[in-house]
Specification:
With 129 residues, the protein is an alpha+beta fold. It is built from three helices and five strands. It binds iron/sulfur cluster (2 copies). One iron/sulfur cluster (SF4) binds next to helix 2.
Length: 129
């Protein structure tokens, strides 16, 4: 899911997963709990134990924390405070393996799957800047 601090990160020109899946997580990750970080005002209660990012529990999801235009230029406004479900969602090939959920979200937004060298090219870009 989109990071804020590397403009060569392919997620920054995507954002599809934040506008395709429901982002649900244990309520204790919100700042309503002593050690939580996710701003509670950006979440909704799902059940007794779980909450969701606002905007993601609906037929055409789009997380309230996602700013920008899908497929062009996006960022997560709570990147440093995002939930575990967001932090643990790997983009395809970022760890050397594909993620079909990443590919599926991108396809839903008309974007082709990331290629195995997507992150290598990002590193090359970083080195060149
Ligand atoms: S909190 Fe950030 S990373 Fe998580 S779904 Fe929303 S925009 Fe995406
Ligand atoms: S769908 Fe994949 S490439 Fe797009 S923002 Fe999410 S993890 Fe990154």
């Amino acid at each position: 899911m989109p990071a804020m601090n590397s403009y060569s990160n392919p997620c920054l020109t995507c954002g599809a997963c934040c506008a395709f899946y429901r982002a649900s997580f244990y309520w204790g990750e919100t700042d309503d709990a002593p050690t939580g970080t996710v701003p509670a005002e950006l979440t909704e209660q799902l059940n007794d134990f779980y909450c969701v990012m606002k905007g993601t529990n609906q037929p055409n999801p789009r997380c309230i924390a996602l700013h920008g235009v899908i497929g062009e230029n996006v960022f997560c406004t709570i990147h440093a405070r995002r939930s575990s479900v967001c932090r643990e969602f790997d983009a395809s090939w970022v760890s050397g393996i594909p993620n079909e959920r990443c590919d599926k979200a991108r396809a839903a937004w008309g974007l082709s799957p990331l290629l195995p060298d997507a992150w290598t090219r990002s590193e090359d870009l970083l080195k060149a800047t």
